[in-house]
Fold this sequence. Notes:
Elements: E1 4-8, H1 20-26, E2 32-36, H2 51-67, E3 77-82, E4 85-92, E5 96-107, E6 110-121, E7 154-156, E8 159-160, H3 164-167, H4 173-190, H5 199-208, H6 216-228, H7 242-249
Parallel strand pairs: 1-3, 2-3
Antiparallel strand pairs: 4-5, 5-6, 7-8
Helix pairs in contact: 6-7
Amino acid sequence: RLTDVYIIGRRGPVEAKCTNVExxxxxxxETAVPQVDPAQxxxxxxxxxxDRDRRLKERNLATLKEFAPRxxxxxxxxxxxxxxxxxxxxxxxxxxxxxxxxRTRVESGRAFGTGETFDIPCGxxxxxxxxxxVPVPGAPFDESACIVPNTDGRVGPGLYAVxxxxxxxxxxxxxxxxxxxxxxxxxxxxxxxxGKPGRAALQTALVQRGVRVTSIADWQKIRAAExxxxxxxxxxxxxSTIRDMLAILDGS
Length: 252
């Protein structure tokens, strides 16, 4: 029976890569209470950051401080945030019985081992080693930040970046959506009216190439089918393949 989940970070709470929206949601779980060791929380955000990053880190730190007083017995389960720890060994024989971690210290944004270890008993280990985008042929790429260098989404003539390839691996769908809106505005500014043949030419090209088009009305049918097959409290049961989605449109 699942009772405790440990989220482990090699660096500290200030360096944690998550949005404040994501973090606050952890405090609203119906069956699990967040647990944070107040001794791992600094008084304030130190270091040199741009204004946007500093605001995010200050909000995250404030949220973690709100979690710190919460008690383990509030809810049946708990989510433990453990910072300054790096996994070094999975313990057990035929099955996982624990995780051995080395305590770390952070210097200039990097985590270094201290040689001191401790164990967490557990029956399941799930690695989350991070995200690295794949360079796009012909586009610039920042190897250290793993992004396509851009100016507010503009990469070069006719080339734009949105989402994680623009900002790095942080945020959720709601965080990425504004990037798409910004890119659309850039495209509208960069391509003057009459500069491209437009929708009619696209529709003609798709027909000539035999490309199947899914309209907004088709998407609404797919959405209705997903909602109609959902098991409460899930809002919908997502189709996992394009073939299944098209089958709904084809009446099969």
